[in-house]
Design goal:
EC 6.2.1.1; alpha/beta; Ac_CoA_lig; ligase; 20 helices; magnesium; 31% helix; 650 residues; AMP-bd_C; 7-stranded mixed β-sheet; GMP Synthetase, Chain A, domain 3; binds adenosine-5'-monophosphate-propyl ester
Length: 650
Amino acid sequence: MSDIKVHPVNPEFAAKAHIDNAKYQTMYDQSINDPDAFWGEHGKRLDWFTPFTKVKNTSFDLHNVDIRWFEDGTLNASYNCLDRHLEERGDQTAIIWEGDDPSESEHISYRDLHGRVCRLANALRGQGVKKGDVVTLYMPMIPEAAVAMLACARIGAVHSVVFGGFSPEALANRIDGAESTVVITSDFSLRGGKVVPLKANVDKALTDPAAAKLVKTVVVVQRTGDKLAWDDSRDVWYHDITAAASAECEAEPVLAEDPLFILYTSGSTGKPKGLKHTTGGYLVYAAMTHEYVFDYKPGDIYWCTADVGWVTGHSYIVYGPLANGATTLMFEGVPNYPDSSRFGRVIEKHKVNQFYTAPTAIRALMQQGEDVLGNADLSSLRLLGSVGEPINPEAWEWYNRVVGKDSCPIVDTWWQTETGGIMITPLPGAINTKPGSATRPFFGVLPALVDNEGKELEGAADGNLVIKDSWPGQSRSIWGDHERFSQTYFSTFKGFYTTGDGARRDADGYYWITGRVDDVINVSGHRMGTAEVESALVAHPAVAEAAVVGYPHNLKGQGIYVYVTLQSGFDASDELLKELRTWVRSEIGPIASPDLIQFAPGMPKTRSGKIMRRILRKIAEDDYGALGDTSTLADPTVVDDLIENRLNRK
Ligand code: PRX
C-alpha cells in the first residue's frame, strides 16, 4: 500500500476550518475518556424544553441491550430545525429545490418552511394523527417530503419513509410492519422525464389485506396533476387539508428517547428491519457531524444528492442541515437528465459549496470523460463528500481532479442506517486523506477490529469492524422486535456493536472498509439482503430454489448474480429469464433487478443440505480456480456445470 498517494490537509483550509488537527486530537481524546462531559457539552447545541441532567446511559450487554442518551431532557426536532432559527434567519433559504426539469426550482425560507410544516402538522392532527402514531411517507424528492417529516416530528408522530422506488408489495410490508394508519404520497413522481405512478402504487399496496385494514387516510400531494384513481373514503388532497389548517402549531415536547423515525433496511434475513431512531441523541449527532465533517459555515450552500428514502437523506438533507440553520439543496432528478452535465449545471446554478454524493454516481460520470460536466463553473465548491460504498482510488482521484479541481478536500464518510450519522471520516481541516480510506473515527466513536472468534486485533490488521461503545446517533432498536435487534448487532461479538462490515487498519491507524462480511450486498450504494431477493424469486411458480450473491461491477460496485433451479416441468428460456427479472422488480423494486441469472440444475450443497455460498460467490466473481475446500460437497459435479455455464467472464 506504499504506492497510495497521501493528500495532505490544505493549510489554508485548515486555518479557517472548525476543526484542525490539534483540535481533533484533543476533542477526540476527551470524547472517549469522558463521554459524559463531552456529550453533555455538545448536547447543548440543541434547544431543549427541559434541559437534560443525565447524558449517557447505555449497555451493549446481549441480555440487556439498552441505549439512552440525554434521557430526562425534552425537546422537539421540528422546533430545533425551524422555530429557533426564525429570529436570526427567518428569511434565509432553508431549502433550495431543484426540479427534475431544469427550468423548475424554488427557494423556501425558514419562515415559509415553518408555516408549511405547521399547516401540515395541524392537518395531520385533524386526520386523527396523535403522538406516537406512525405515518408512512412514500414520496418523490419534493419539498413536501421534508415538510411531512418535520410535521410528524412537530406533533410527536413517528415517520417511516419508504423509498419511492420500492414496489407496492415492499410498501405494503413496511406499512404493515410499522402498523401505520396514515400514508403520505404524491400523485406521480418525475425522474429523468419519466412519470412514476406513486399513488397508484399505494392503491396497489392497499390491496394487501393487512395494510388495507390499518390505513385510514392517504394524503396525496399533487405533483403532476395527471388523472388518477380516487377513493373518497380514504384519499385526501394535501393542498385541501393544508389550506384549511392554521399556520400556527406549538411544537409538542417529547422525551429525548421518544422515537423520531423508523427506517427500513436490509439485513441477512428475508425480512427488512425497521430501525428505530430516537430524538435527542440522533439530532445532536446528525447536526454535529454535518457541521464538522462538511465544515459547514453560515451562508454556505450544501448539496447532498441522496434520496430522502435513505438514511443519508434523513440525516444530511433534512435533520442535520436544518438543525444547523443551513441552506440544503434538494434535487428531484437524476444525474444524466437532460444530459450528464446536470450535476455540474446544478452546482453552477446554485453556487454549491459542499457536494456530497455516492461513488456509483462518480463512476458513471467518469465513464463519460473529463468534460462530462460541460465546462460548468464549479468554482463555488469548497468540499466534496462520498458515501454509501467503498470508493475505488481511481474514482477518488477523478473526483478530486475533475470536480474538485485539486483544491477541495474529499471526505469519504463511512456509516450505516443503524449508526444514524457519519462514524469514520476525515475531518477536512484535520486529517490527511488517502484515496479509498475513510480514515479516522468521528468524536465519540471507538472502532475496533476483531477476528472471527471475537478477539480484538491490535495495530495494522484486517478483521471484522465493530464499535466498542455507544454514540448518540445510534439506532435504539428494531421496531417491535428488540430481541432481533440484540441478536443481530450484539450477539456475534459480545459486548460490541457488530457493523457487518470488514475493514483493514493500516500502520497510521486509518480504516479501509473492505465491504460486507454478511449476506448483504451493496448495489449502486443501495443496500440489499440477498435473502430478500431469493425469497422474491422462490415465490415465482417456476423457481424451485434460488441463491443470490454479489459480484464486482464496474459501475454499480456490486451487481446481483442469481442462480436458479427450476421446478420440474419448466424450461430455461430467454422468455423465462425476462419474466424472472420483471418479477423481482415488481416484488421489491427496480433496484433489486438481477444483472445476471444463471439456470443451475443443482446448487452446491453440504451433505447436510446447506448451500455453499462461498463457492457461488467465487464462480460469480469468475475466480473459480480458488474454490478452496470442496470436500464437504454432497455432489461435486454440480460445481463443474456451474463453472462451465458461468455468466461473468473476465
Ligand atoms: O457496507 C457499508 C457501506 O454501506 C453500508 C450501509 O448501508 P446503508 O445502511 O444503506 O447506509 C448507506 C449510507 C450511510 C455499510 O455497512 N458503506 C457506507 N458508506 C461507506 C460504505 N462502505 C465503504 N465506504 C463508505 N464510505
